[in-house]
Design brief:
single chain, alpha/beta, TIM Barrel, Rossmann fold, FAD/NAD(P)-binding domain, 3 domains, 9-stranded parallel β-sheet, 5-stranded parallel β-sheet, 29 strands, about 20% strand, globular, binds flavin-adenine dinucleotide, binds flavin mononucleotide, binds iron/sulfur cluster
């Protein structure tokens, strides 16, 4: 049979192994491991899921070769911890049993090691070593790494490689990018040494080359070694692509695959992790450039998730393989779906950074659109339904749709009624915003998933007690969502006011000067969108800061976009709306007019309690999910919808 994406699904020989296709999982750490640095069954299940979904290679990530000096995060896999081997072996086996190559990423954090790396408010007084002495912004003092220590670490890399090979891993991924130890040595901005490890480009590359030699000596010839490099550092004094190409040429004979990412440790998070505001595939040009200068296969990374785009990248010879991070959290089965030519079923990553923000906030790994992430292990034991039930779901937003899909998969008879003429709930509010198109696509993917799982979807159908009575479900799931809060200020009903929920309605007219009332994430994103369309946009917020509801990874990116495009006014309360614009009061009660043609009202949502309460006694068992309980985000709606269905 002819495959839709023949190049993406052609094997690739790397060292002594064959990749079954060209889709590699990016290294993504699983934080819920033991404090000693041992992998847990939960961690093994996290990595296993991507193998099960069809990725050719699945690496475990950031295995630290010398824990005392090199932990890049407060919790890492520590290869020198006494009892790390069994967890490694279990995880390697879990990956391999699905036909994926089990790889292990080796790393050392260098000057950015230490617990305060994650939480900058902590000032842990461990001694840190980098290529050169330094003082970090948070006051941490970095010592120049003595040569004896460099030699010791080279040995540690070799020992680490030998250990993971012994555990059953079939490939090494050497992390020489993202600003960790090896990149610090290669970086002219960080490395000011005068010995053989500093100065010329060759000297700055020396540590990486010695580490590769130590790894090769430990694993033997042909054992595949992949190196991950950053194409650029994106900070003052940092190296650029031409230096990265030289590095690639120097390592070419010592590695079997070169993965080209970009970025450094400080200040380039949004370069390494391409946000929703930039097109997908924005880093491929780096890898394509490197490929022109080396013999070994080259892999590209960077917000890739569209099989058509990935096929083109490989078919055109730009690179030999693609590496996917967030795309495989959102949908670990992306490779399998693409292989079968069912790409429209792929659930796309929203680039919302919930996965990374949640780790900062609670230490958990989750995904906004995949309720299984972080719960892979327990999901292996999801209860089977004892007897199929008739389930009626009121509301076709993310909570209702996810609940319907999970319930139908478990064998229940599911009817989903949506009052509006289309699915998506509050997500429909975003359909005109170009950088939110993955959200819009999410609606159609979920609609297709419902069709494929046999959910009976009834659009334009309001669930009322009478309708419930006629359908007679065993379980009624209320997922009716929320409605916008309209502040009771004079003029709020004027024609120059648009509620943020209606921003994407075709009939909505927006003027040139816009003031957004409410500086939460929704208001900020609306302002960015309107500014990108060429309007003068101002955000007004009562609190001292804006986008405070955005997660810790997304917020700095939003603030940066706002700084470039939008006027932000905090500490101002909107008091009335006139034909001229929004009148605000500061803390002292002084009034100021912010001239505007249109005022966007984005002050939040409130649950549709009257609808919920009207339905509460209409079926034997009633469950409430999503924004109708408490307005939150897709993450919570999806999660709650899924688990409510597991409870049935
Ligand atoms: C403008 C805006 C932008 C947002 N942007 C983001 C974002 O970028 N990222 C993010 O994570 N979250 C975002 N959110 C929040 C997110 O959309 C919600 O948390 C999520 O949609 C809640 O899902 P839900 O299914 O509970 O409710 P909803 O999405 O509100 O869906 C409820 C559905 O129930 C239907 N309904 C109501 N009554 C009945 C009835 N009686 N019978 C049948 N159907 C009924 C409604 O028509 C609606 O379609 C945004 C919210 C808004 C308002
Ligand atoms: C949840 C998460 C965890 C990550 N953990 C690691 C890690 O442990 N080691 C690493 O080298 N990169 C890590 N990264 C970076 C990814 O490997 C990848 O470079 C980045 O996500 C860009 O790829 P993407 O656009 O396909 O997501 C992580 C990324 C994410 C989203
Ligand atoms: S949490 Fe958001 S950014 Fe992370 S993988 Fe899921 S959808 Fe993508």
């Amino acid at each position: 049979m002819e495959r839709k994406f023949p190049h993406l699904f052609s094997p690739l020989r790397v060292g002594n192994v064959y990749f079954k296709n060209r889709i590699l999982s990016a290294p993504m750490a699983y934080p819920d491991i033991t404090p000693e640095g041992y992998l847990t069954p939960e961690a093994a299940a996290f990595f296993e899921l991507r193998a099960r979904g069809g990725a050719a290679v699945v690496p475990i990530s950031e295995c630290i070769v010398h824990a005392e000096t090199g932990k890049s995060h407060n919790i890492n896999i520590c290869l020198d911890a006494p009892n790390v081997l069994p967890g490694l072996a279990i995880t390697a086996s879990a990956i391999k049993r699905h036909g994926a190559i089990a790889s292990a990423e080796l790393n050392h954090g260098g000057k950015y090691s230490g617990a305060d790396n994650i939480d900058k408010s902590k000032n842990v007084k461990n001694i840190r070593y980098g290529p050169s002495a330094d003082v970090l912004d948070n006051g941490a003092v970095i010592q120049e790494m003595p040569r004896e220590m460099i030699h010791m670490l080279v040995e540690q890399y070799g020992k680490g490689a030998a250990l993971v090979k012994k555990a059953g891993f079939e490939m090494i991924l050497l992390h020489a990018g993202h600003g960790w130890l090896l990149q610090q040595f290669f970086s002219p901005a960080h490395n000011r040494r005068t010995d053989e490890y500093g100065g010329s480009l060759e000297n700055r590359a020396r540590l990486t080359l010695e580490v590769l030699d130590a790894i090769r000596a430990a694993v033997g010839p042909d054992f595949p070694i992949e190196i991950r490099i950053s194409a650029e550092e994106h900070h003052e004094g940092g190296y650029t692509l031409s230096d990265a190409i030289e590095l690639a040429k120097l390592v070419d004979d010592k590695v079997d695959l070169i993965q080209v990412s970009t970025g450094s440790h400080e200040g380039s998070f949004d370069k390494t992790h391409q946000p929703m505001f930039v097109p997908r595939g924005g880093l491929v040009h780096y890898a394509a450039e490197v490929k022109k200068h080396v013999k070994k296969p080259v892999a590209a990374i960077g917000a890739l998730n569209d099989p058509y785009m990935m096929e083109e990248i490989i078919a055109s010879g730009k690179v030999d393989a693609v590496v996917l991070g967030r795309a495989l959290l959102a949908d670990p089965y992306l490779p399998q779906k693409a292989m079968m030519g069912r790409e429209e079923e792929i659930v796309h990553c929203l680039r919302c950074f919930t996965c990374m923000g949640e780790r900062m906030a609670t230490g958990l790994r989750i995904c906004a659109v995949n309720p299984i992430i972080g719960r892979e292990y327990e999901s292996n034991f999801a209860p089977a339904p004892t007897e199929p039930k008739k389930v009626l779901i009121a509301g076709g937003g993310p909570a209702g749709m996810q609940c319907a899909i999970t319930a139908a998969r478990r064998g229940h008879e599911v009817i989903l009624c949506e009052k509006a003429g289309e699915l998506g709930g509050a997500l429909r509010c975003e359909r005109a915003i170009p950088f939110k198109q993955d959200l819009v696509r999410y609606i159609s993917t979920k609609a297709l998933e419902m069709k494929n799982t046999g959910v009976d979807v009834r659009l334009g159908t309001e669930v009322t007690p009478e309708l419930v009575e006629s359908i007679k479900p065993d379980v009624l799931v209320i997922a009716v969502g929320a409605e916008p809060i309209i502040p009771p200020i004079p003029g709020i009903d004027s024609p120059n006011v648009v509620v943020a929920n209606n921003l994407s309605d075709p009939e909505t007219k927006i003027g040139q000067r816009v003031v957004v009332l409410g500086g939460g994430q929704v208001g900020c994103e609306a302002a960015i969108h309107l500014a990108q369309e060429g309007r003068d946009a101002t955000v007004v917020e009562m609190l001292p800061g804006v986008a405070v509801d955005a997660n810790g990874r997304q917020r700095p990116i939003l603030l940066d976009m706002l700084k470039k495009l939008v006027t932000v006014k905090t500490g101002l309360k909107g008091t009335r709306i006139t034909d001229e614009g929004l009148v605000c009061a500061d803390k002292s009660g002084n009034e100021v007019l912010l001239p505007a043609d249109t005022i966007i009202c984005a002050v939040g949502q409130k649950p549709l309690r009257s609808v919920v309460e009207g339905l509460l006694n209409s079926a034997p068992r009633v469950v409430e999910v999503g924004d109708c309980v408490k307005p939150q985000r897709i993450t919570e709606a999806t999660f709650r919808g899924h688990y409510a269905a597991l409870d049935i």
